[in-house]
Write a structure and sequence with these properties.
- This protein is an alpha+beta fold.
- The protein is about 25% helix and about 25% strand.
- The protein has a 7-stranded mixed beta sheet, with helices on one face. It has a 3-stranded antiparallel beta sheet with strand order 12-6-14. A 3-stranded antiparallel beta sheet has the order 8-7-11.
- The protein starts with a strand and ends in a 7-residue tail after the last strand.
- It binds fe (ii) ion (FE2).
Amino acid sequence: METITTKKLNDKVGVEFVGVTADQLRNDDSLAVAVLDALEERGVVLFRKIDADDQSQVDFCRKLGPLNNFKDHPPYETEEVMEISFSPSNPTAAYLKSNDFWHTDGLLDDHAAKTAVLSARVVADKGGETEFASTYEAYDALTDDEKERFENVRVIHSFEAVQRHSYENPTAEQIEEWNARRPGREHPLVWTHSTGRRSLVLGATASHIVGMDVEEGRALLKELVDRATTPDRVYRHTWAVGDMVLWDNSGLLHRACEFDRKEPRRMHRSTITGSSVGQ
Ligand SMILES: [Fe+2]
């Protein structure tokens, strides 16, 4: 592998791999090893203006692990790439509003995504950045007393909790429909990874804490997200066309920043399959 220059994106999160080309993505196998190490260590990897096409993105992502297949979401050209846009022609656009709230992808699925990848094809004139905050850092910043108290805490995650961010006073019918569509899941608050590192499992899907007064639990979950996402802990990526960003979904919260939904902002997304949230 050619020597690659890397640059930290801020104190807590992220590293840029400077000057990598789309050709290297396809042909330099040792690059994937370096990226996996960087994702574990820094959470976010940026290839600025790499201009990778869908096939180069998919070829590279396959070296990082098995990919999710989006063939059930036509009309994408490549089954391992999904379009993120608010275009009326995008069948998943209606579900993207919840991306504006801090979350981890896949907590309502069997397996939370391991690594997520976005390439910017069209960017917004104003806004539309993506923000990242480390949930490993969030755990490490707890007091010793909190670490002990949270050891066996279990949290219910639900689609209803996500939707309540957008609909403050839902009807009984709405709630019933949400819960029928996506059943809730229980996860530990503290995720012990196979590496032995620990992170917090938080975000918009988190509804309440098992065995605790619902409102009290919600207040605690909100406080933990607020503490994890203070400005000094967040990397905000301002997109340029051609940027590719990969993130360790299992150790980060992320969210999209506001932009005019009539703008043709378009991202191409791939997902490396993960595993169950650890105990
Ligand atoms: Fe997301």
